[in-house]
Every structure is written in structure tokens, then in C-alpha cells.
Amino acid sequence: MKTKAAILWELNTPWSVEEIELDAPKAGEVLVKIAASGMCHSDEHVVTGDLPFAMPIIGGHEGAGVVEAVGPGVSWLAPGDHVVFGFIPSCGRCPSCSTGHSNLCDMGALLGTGKQIADGTSRHHAQGQDISTMCLLGTFAHHTVVNEASCIKIEKDIPLEKACLLGCGVVTGWGSSVYAA
To answer: What span, in angstroms and rounded, lies between the C-alpha atoms of 5 and 59?
Structure first.
């Protein structure tokens, strides 16, 4: 499908909003229509190169939206469900997740690649190139395909423009106040 996204082609350049081609979700993946995305200072760190990610990249790691399609094997999410994204995936099965440390999920090791967890390829393409996604999400887009491990299902009455902040800003602030203050 065609959609629009904000792409950073090179470090220290402006984001460029462009039409992209987005593949359908594969096994364990979800197509989400983004309703809201937060802008975090981490996004600026991507622009400056202080956070190393594969380029070119679709920015954004705070987002919320509505599931439009699910890939094979996704049984707990369905079209129409509302989700917020966690900027670190949580598989629920690795040693870290199964001992209550989902912030250290094995899947998090793939964040800098910007490629899909299942097969290391991209679902986002523009100008004949694969485009990576910040934190495997790329919420600076109208639509994105993400691994189900990055989705958190929420109630439909929660405003998505507020829920989008839960994926990074709120949890980071809470963690800082509880564990560092």
C-alpha cells in the first residue's frame, strides 16, 4: 500500500515527508493506522547521530493507532483494536521477559537495525530503497507495520492523542522518578 512518512535520509538534515510503499504484515506483524505520534528528544538524537540507527529511517517511537490488519499467527489483536507502541518490544518468552525485566527483552537488541524482528528485512520502501524504522516502529507515518511484541492493546475509549505518550515519555518519566530520584 502507499502511505506517507517522515524520512531522515542523512544525518543533520531535515525530515522529508514523502510517499512510501508499505508491505503487508507477515507472520507475527501488525499493520497500524497511526492516529497520534509524540515528538521526543530522542528523535532529535537520531537526526544528530547521537543515537545510531540505520539510515534512511522513518522517525518516531511514541505512537498510538488502530489495527487495520494482522499477519499470520497474530491471535490476540484484530482489526479495529486500539494500540499504543512500546519503544522496546516485549516478547514475553525470553529470559528477561519471563523474569519481569521486559525492558531487557532479547528483541531489543535489534532496535538499531530498524528492520523487522522476524526476518531482518524492511516493510517500508521509498525511492527504490528499504527504509528502516526508529525502534522498529516508525510512528512518523500515516501507517506502519510492526511486530506484535511492540503493541499494547488499550481500551477504545482512551484518547489516542494522549495514549501515544505512554510508549516513551510517560514510562521514562515514571521510571526516572521511581528508580533514580
So the answer is: 8
In degrees rounded to 5, what are phi and psi of residue 26?
Answer: -100, -170
Catalytic residue among 91, 97, 151, 168: 168
Strand partners of residue 37: 63
CA 34 – CA 91 distance, rounded (Å): 22
Cα–Cα distance for residue pair 140/162, rounded to 1 Å: 16
| Catalytic (active site) residue 135 | no
Active site residue 61: yes
Longest dimension (CA), the chain: 47
What are 109-168's pLDDT values in tens digits?
887 788 888 898 999 999 999 999 999 999 999 999 999 999 999 999 999 999 998 877
127 grid coordinates: 525511492
Instruction: For residue 130, give the CATH number of its domain.
Output: 3.90.180.10
State the residue range of the domain holding 70: 2-179
Number of domains in the chain: 1
**Is residue 105 annotated as a catalytic residue, yes or no?**
no
Hey, how many other C-beta atoms are within 10 angstroms of the C-beta on 69?
18
Q: Is 168 a catalytic residue?
A: yes
